[in-house]
Design brief:
single chain, alpha+beta, Lipocalin, 2 domains
């Protein structure tokens, strides 16, 4: 009877260790796989996310004004960013008194391969912060889904994270 108990405990420990190892491997795969370009608020705007050895870097490229006729872009690099499990969050550096905070959950989208749009979706909350010239702060909060661009068809932004200062 003692041998049966010892064998059962050993098998249970072995199975538990195997499951834990399998779960530990799931995180790094997600981290590496979500690197790429994602849609932002307006068509033509994007978020670039890069995950390398657990470190998250990136930028968002957006229209400077709400008027698309002016079509001037502002790049805002991530000041802070992290991926914990399936939760992605970032905060951009301010540019012209505006900065963004985002926190959301990474999930697989409906696309079958990474070469298709929407393979990854990051659903969460975006907070847009504005500071006026007189120092008054306001914020707008809304739900946003970042949708991955096709891996093979990603636009090649002329601005890269290598230009980060």
């Amino acid at each position: 009877m003692k041998n049966l108990f010892a064998i059962t405990v050993f098998l249970l420990a072995f199975l538990t260790a195997g499951l834990a190892q399998g779960l530990a491997k799931a995180g790094p795969e997600l981290s590496r796989d979500i690197t790429g370009l994602y849609s932002f608020v307006h068509e033509g705007e994007f978020v670039q996310i890069e995950v390398n050895e657990g470190r998250v870097t990136g930028l968002l490229s957006r229209f400077k004004n709400d008027d698309p006729e002016k079509a001037e872009f502002v790049d805002q690099f991530f000041e802070q960013a992290k991926l914990e499990g399936s939760t992605l969050s970032f905060r951009t550096r301010p540019a012209g008194g505006v900065w963004f905070e985002f926190s959301g959950t990474v999930e697989r989208g409906p696309a079958k391969t990474q070469a298709d749009e929407g393979y990854w979706k990051v659903k969460g909350t975006l907070i847009e912060h504005h500071t006026s010239a007189n120092g008054q702060s306001t914020e707008k909060k809304h739900e946003l889904t970042l949708s991955s661009f096709p891996a093979d068809g990603e636009p090649n932004p002329t601005r890269t994270m290598d230009k980060e200062k």
